[in-house]
Amino acid sequence: MTEPRDELRRPTERMPRVNEPAVEEVVERDDSYRKVRTVHTVCAVIDIVCWTFAIVLLVHIFLVVADANAANGFFQFVAGWANGITLGLDGLFTPDSEKVAVLFNEGLAAILWLLIGTLLTNLITRLALPADHRRAWYRRTVRP
């Protein structure tokens, strides 16, 4: 017969009884655990920084193209950030319209930030991860 406390749980789960031994699960970490975790953390930080820079540039492009009030505090904050992270591409394209110039210059900088993040994380994972934790790009199988 089931007890009232067992009816509250899913039918597949059962509370251990008082006299039953407790089951322990021991998980052992290998030597490469800390290295793998550190590499993944570094790659995550790089991704977050590069995506943040790209999003700030895209927000600035949107504000300029949409004719936002340049005297607004939010616009000035975003413009200040965008000026610092354009990778020196401010005057690369010089079309007649300022909106198009901002679109091309900062759009290219945003794309470059995403490419830089992708290349860095890919390079770090290929060089720093142990061989058994790397992604397999090419696997050759020989069949008899």
Textual characterization of the structure:
- The chain has 144 residues and is mainly α.
- The protein has a domain at 32-129.
- Helix content is 56%, strand content 0%.
- The N and C termini lie far apart (59 Å).
- The model has no long low-confidence stretch (mean pLDDT 85).
In terms of DSSP E residues, the strand content is under 5%
Radius of gyration: 27 Å
Main sheet characteristics: none
How many helices? Answer: 4
The shape, in one word, is elongated
Tell me how many strands there are: 0
Coarse structural class: mainly alpha
Percent in helix: 55-70%
Unreliable sequence segments: none
Amino- and carboxy-terminal Cα gap: 59 Å
Mean pLDDT: 85
> Which series of helices and strands comes N to C?
HHHH
Jot down its keywords:
mainly alpha; 144 residues
Short précis:
With 144 residues, the chain is mainly α.
SSE inventory with pairings:
Layout: H1 4-7, H2 33-65, H3 73-84, H4 98-128
Helix pairs in contact: 2-3, 2-4
